[in-house]
Amino acid sequence: MTVRYVLDGSQVRTLEDFWRLIGEAINGPGGYFGKNLDAFADCLSGGFGQPDDDDYLVVWHDHEVSREYLGYPETARQLERRLARCHPTNRAAVGKELAAARKGRGETVFDWLIEIFEDRAPGVLQLQ
Question: Is this prediction's pTM over 0.85?
Answer without folding.
Answer: yes
